[in-house]
Model the fold of this input.
Amino acid sequence: MFKRILVPLDGSLLSQQSLPYAKYIARCGEQAAELVLLRVTSQPTGVMLTPEDVAAVLGERRHPLGSSPYQPTLGDRMFIPDAPPHADPRIEHEVEQAAVELDALQVQLLSEGFVVRTILQPGVIAETVLDVAQQEAVDMIAMTTHGRGGLGRFVLGSVADRVTRHAEVPVLLVRAQDVVRETPKLKHILVPLDGSELAAAVLPKVQEIAQACAAEILLLRVAPGERGYMAEPMPILQPTLLHGEMFEPMHASDVYQQQVANEYIENTGASVQHRGVPTRTLVLLGDPATIILDVARDEHVDIIAMSTHGRSGLRRFLLGSVSERVVRHSDVPVLLFRAR
Done:
């Protein structure tokens, strides 16, 4: 299944919340995957000058009015990107501390029987994660959507967002929570689909994961229309009570959408089931992100696996809309595949 899993960390306990899931998945296959722990430290790319340094550099410069020589003020700073960096004690301490923490984590994981390596590398976080993922030929990246409290270095919308947009491999995003989760399990996998080939491109890898982890797949076909459960292939033509909720008669367009959705999900489910993976199917009409989150909660799924976009023209699952809303609000990890 997976041979090498990259786990970016930032030194916070919150950033380590993706690690239990990486460990679980690493042991699902016939041969345990290698865990690669990555810590990205700050990297000075130039010299930050003090007010006195600024005065020395700009000693001959005049104010805009040209009436007096430059006088430095307390707030003046100048950044020279091409200058050789000075040794920064704070960065040196950060690197030393990061090395100690990585070593301790490696020893712990080795004692648990995992194959694990550590990488300590300076750089810009998102770009370094992507570069290391490519250099190390990893099969998956598992990361927490934020660390370091509210202003986390891994906050979704910056690092995790950029990694997900550009990674060539699946990215498992675990939303950091104050309450530590119990030992994770992956027995129920929710796969939202929109009827496109791009959205369905996740199925081969998800089937592989399900087989390795002895998990069940729930295929959810989200179709446009008025919100409602359409678990059975029959249109609602009169007020009907379903799952404890009253639904009004469907418009003709909704009936058509429901029929198309049911045919698609039945065929897709049969194909997955034929490969020996326990599979259930469900069709819902309405807002995709809301439905996905509701089904994940109601069905007690352990993970959501979805493409970052579907419907190449309309991009209904485009990261930044449906999948981003799911990641931001899901109580379970989301495994994202960048559709090609």
Q: What stands out?
A: The chain has two domains: 4-44+87-174, 188-337.
